[in-house]
Model the fold of this input.
Amino acid sequence: MATVRLSFTPAPAHVRTARLVGVAVARRAGVPEADLDEVRLAIGEACSRAVALHRRYALTDLVEVELYDEAQFTVRVTDRAPADVGGTAMPLAALIDQSDGGDVVDEEDVAVEMGLALLAGVVKDLSVRPAPAGVGTEVQMSWPTVPQR
Amino acid sequence: MDLSLSTRKVGDRTVLEVGGEIDVYTAPALRERLIEVVEGGARAVTVDLGRVEFLDSTGLGVLVGGLKRMRLSGGDFSLVCDQERILKIFRITGLDQIFTVFPSVEAATAGSAG
Done:
């Protein structure tokens, strides 16, 4: 049973709300202050990814965020989009050096690549797997906590 | 905090000062402002991230777009940032190898030909 459960329509404005709630629960769960920037960034990236996928497939389904205050602090972000192919798999330099005009599509490709790199870079305990029920993907992230007095 | 954007000229250089949070919600405004600056004929652009409190991958994508636009127009593009938590994001993604990052606007002005 999640400590806090949040569902939001796939709109960019709500990603900030998810970050704020996530950091508040993480702090209460006992995640050290020094790790909260990484929690904020990781929840934002996971939710941004979910919102982008729902918008790409024109889905109005809610993005689900579950926050667990247990032996460690765990976040699960679940989208309802068909399995993501995981970005362009294009080397960073190639993304930057494409000389086709620097349009928005390029920026989105860069953002997808950077989002995955950031998740992998700031979350030590990260798993990405098919959603347990129905279509979609579940991103799970955990951080250690210190006991509260 | 929402995004704040302001531009000023330092010599021939256009400095875009950014404050607040650059994320999936606010990044489009930054993109629009960067396009305005580039299409306005700027030959040297520095984006000052000194008052940025949060930066995510969407923001990185917009900054890469700004870099590409300036390269295409033959101009100079650099960043200013001295905040470790923001610099760390550039290191994790490898973008510290792509962008020229200065610790201050003064250093950017002195360190570039623009």
In short: Chain B touches chain A through 25 residues (CB under 8 Å).
